[in-house]
Amino acid sequence: PFKDEVVAIIGLGGTGGYVLDYMVKTPVRGIRAFDADGFHVHNAFRSPGRLTKGELGKSKAQVLAGRYRNFRKGLSIQTKFIDESSGKDLRGVTFAFVCVDKGSSRAAIHALLISMGIPFIDVGMGLNRKRGPISGGMRTTHFSAANAEKVSAEKLVPTHDNPDDMYKTNIQIAELNALNASLAVIAYKKTLGFYVDDEPFYNLLMSLGDMRTPRQTE
Length: 218
Fold this sequence. Notes:
The chain has helices at about 15-25, 40-45, 60-70, 85-90, 105-115, 150-155, 175-190, and strands at about 5-10, 30-35, 75-80, 95-100, 120-130, 135-145, 200-205, 215. By secondary structure, it is of the alpha/beta class.
């Protein structure tokens, strides 16, 4: 089911880095990944792989291209932001993962993908320490080509920035990034019939407190 797939990964932070790692090992025809931010210490704690001297200070795209360029063909990782003017970069893409943590950027990316008819999954985390230990959860929202407008209208995905979100301040959460990415990639592979899908959903939340996964089904 993967041979004709061209997948875009928009955002290569903690969760996006793991999505990239999983997709590089999936036999899709092509992968286009985008991020214009720099690679810093907290990124090293939230991404798969090792840190080598000289990677800090480069862009995330440069660092990850160096790690994966000899792993497979059909891989393009660019130091670039994706916004409403980036249609040319996404032409030919069959599916996208949106892994950004800025609400305003997310809104523009969603609008572009919906206008181009590209199905996508948006991932996110909402974390806090109101109870002492870190609490909150992970979200996986699927915008299919058929229901993207409907899902968008439900406003399940935040399009504003939360200054108090623990995600931005606590680096010891790599396992949450990896789990969020795993949920997203599994959901994508379900759309292709690779995994069984007894109860298709378009929005899944996994709570840290009880590890339950309430979902909204199609």
